[in-house]
Amino acid sequence: MPQLDRQQLIDLVTRLSEGQGTEEEQDQWMTTLKESVSDPKISDYIFWDNSNPPLTPEQIVDKALAYQPIALGGPE
After folding, report:
1. Which tens digit of pLDDT belongs to each residue from 1-27?
2. Which H or E run contains 10?
3. What CA–CA distances, in Å, run from 57 to 47, 49, 62, 71?
4. pLDDT top residue among 65 and 71
5. How would DSSP label each residue in 21-48?
6. 9: part of which helix (H) or strand (E)?
7. 51 — phi, psi (to 5°)?
């Protein structure tokens, strides 16, 4: 899987948030986004954003890139 840079991620988020492309293209873009960031809520930020004002594509990408999963378990 090729690693997307920040601008490529912003472009995908912009396309999705503006409803561009066919349903198949949107599904493919969403899959690519989910594979490119570790934040499991990336789609929520795009489609279910309740912020006022709404998050920009840049803010969505930065939020997703800043996500740090919680490490479970103790020392080994």
Report:
1. 457 999 999 999 999 999 999 999 999
2. helix 6-17
3. 11, 11, 9, 28
4. 65
5. S-HHHHHHHHHHHHHH-S-TTHHHHHHS
6. helix 6-17
7. -70, 150
pLDDT tens-place string over residues 38-59: 999 999 999 998 888 889 999 9
11 SS3 class: helix
Predicted TM-score (pTM) of this structure: 0.84
Report the sign of the C-alpha dihedral through residues 30, 11, 19, 23, in that order: negative
Q: Which residues contact 43 (CB under 8 A, 6 or more apart)?
A: 30, 33, 34
Assign 68 to helix, strand or coil.
Answer: coil
